[in-house]
Amino acid sequence: MSELQCAFKMKLKPGMADEYKRRHDAIWPELKKVISDSGVYDYSIFLDEETNILFAYQKLKPGNKADDQKFDPVVRKWWDMMADIMDVNPDNSPVSIPLRQMFHMD
Fold this sequence. Notes:
By secondary structure, the protein is an alpha+beta fold. The protein is 26% helix and 25% strand.
């Protein structure tokens, strides 16, 4: 099985790190299921506390439907709940900037 990887960055509003962590510590089981069922696994988000930039990394199964998550009502509800603490687009999706892989070592 060929492994796909995805990395992107998002941005928290100032002073929202603890709240972001609290909300993710209580992530909804139905949201985890949507993410997993779309083919995403081994998903981590890191924070650069100097810039409030979030760095996300996930592995994707071949044939994944990760791009279709944006149509799921559970995902959209999560976005709405998170919109007050991070930079978002008009539809409340997080402003997410893809990152190009420059190096990998097994």
